[in-house]
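Support request, priority: normal
Reporter: lab tech (M.K.)
Component: structure prediction queue

Hi team, I submitted a job for Dihydrolipoyl dehydrogenase from Piscinibacterium candidicorallinum yesterday, and the status page still shows it as pending. I've pasted the exact input below so you can check whether something in the sequence is tripping the parser. The sequence length should be 477 residues. Please let me know if I need to resubmit or if it's stuck on your end.
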Amino acid sequence: MENLMKNFDVIVIGGGPGGYIAAIRAAQLGFNTACIDAWKNAKGAPAPGGTCTNVGCIPSKALLQSSEHFEHAAHGFAEHGVEVSGLKLNLAQMLKRKDEVVGQNNAGILFLFKKNKVSFFNGLGSFVAAKDGGYEIKVEGTEETLFAKYVVVATGSNARALPGVPFDEDRVLSNDGALRIPDVPKKLGVIGAGVIGLEMGSVWRRLGAEVTVLEGLPNFLGAVDETIAKEAHKLFTKQGLKISLGVKVGEIKTTKKGVTVNYTDNAGAAQVLECDRLIVSIGRTPNTHGLNTEAVGLKLDERGFIAVDDECRTNLPGVWAVGDVVRGPMLAHKAEEEGVAVAERIAGQHGHVNFNTIPWVIYTSPEIAWVGKTEQQLKAEGVAYKAGSFPFMANGRARALGDTTGMVKMLADAKTDEILGVHIIGPVASELISECVMAMEFKAASEDIARICHAHPTLSEAVKEAALAVDKRTLNF
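Reply from support: The job had stalled in the queue. We restarted it manually and it finished. Here are the results:
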């Protein structure tokens, strides 16, 4: 007996930040909406939220917070007059808490689906055929077949493995395995000094591992403003991360006891890294596995991303794609903005995503956050600019916190004073950057921030002082 097909206005394939947000916004706009997502938790229950919620942003921030507490207790509390004796690490509890935080987020998304009347299907979504002005979508592992005029693909990305060195999530780890190492490694290797490598390296270093980071590029954090990157390299090295730049990784051997990495250093000398476990964080690849794009002729570009225009339209009428599976930065908040914009475009509205004002954050300690152009980009583009910076060392709230590392750096157009970029390394940089994003979105001048009253004492005063520094008139430095 043939199953009845379930009809919707909009079907979203993927329940990560781009997908679940697109589904909720579509439902808010009056569309009968379904979201299909394949993630399940360890107990086999639905776990929407994608990589971000399950093995990315959320669990990594939970472990970063927990490991920072541990490091503060071991090394920082005494300065505040808080004496701790007999400090012990309960790693099982730390990992359990991380899993609970993930579970709360999974449950929150399921609640939001219910609240917004989004129909949720737990399974792998794939195209079956284009017909009757829409698309037939199968949910693998179920008997469900769905149909809708509009489809939004939000299937995310996967960790990129080194050629010939697959992830076993025991000795050779992706971001997934890096979040659930059952015991603190004595020696931990990390290949790739990007966001994931530095964050995961920081977690396990704080908990007692000896961490060595191998990076193929000659410059540290090449996408970050040079001034900030140099400061970060100095601080991370001082903390105990061993960072080698310009290396060329050769043969990697794994045994039940550990991993051996052969590489040449930036001087061309052969080196060997022996470690208990190895995290490989060399980027991510678009995930179109099981989507069955061939069935409907959905076009991919030369790098395997779903090909889209500036508004996230694919080559197929009514089919859109957002997030990591399309061009642009692989950031959860970029995916969310595209998800909202696409839902609004389907409704005939004008969704807004400005790539120039998307903030970037690295949740190390200190945090690194930036928006807009770096100083090296402005130089390369021949843009006349003014720069101003202010150290947290001269900020009263930072002194009270006991965290005075880092600075705020602001770049503005030499003629118009419009803010072109802001770069922060320091305490809660991830929160401080939002003021700068808003300022740039409204095309503010550095003087605008300089003349806005900021509460005292706050870390945000460092942003104001950096704006004052653009005009060489800081008040507290």
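The domain at 172-282 is CATH 3.50.50.60 (FAD/NAD(P)-binding domain). The CA atoms of residues 188 and 211 lie 5 Å apart. Let us know if anything else looks off. Ticket resolved.
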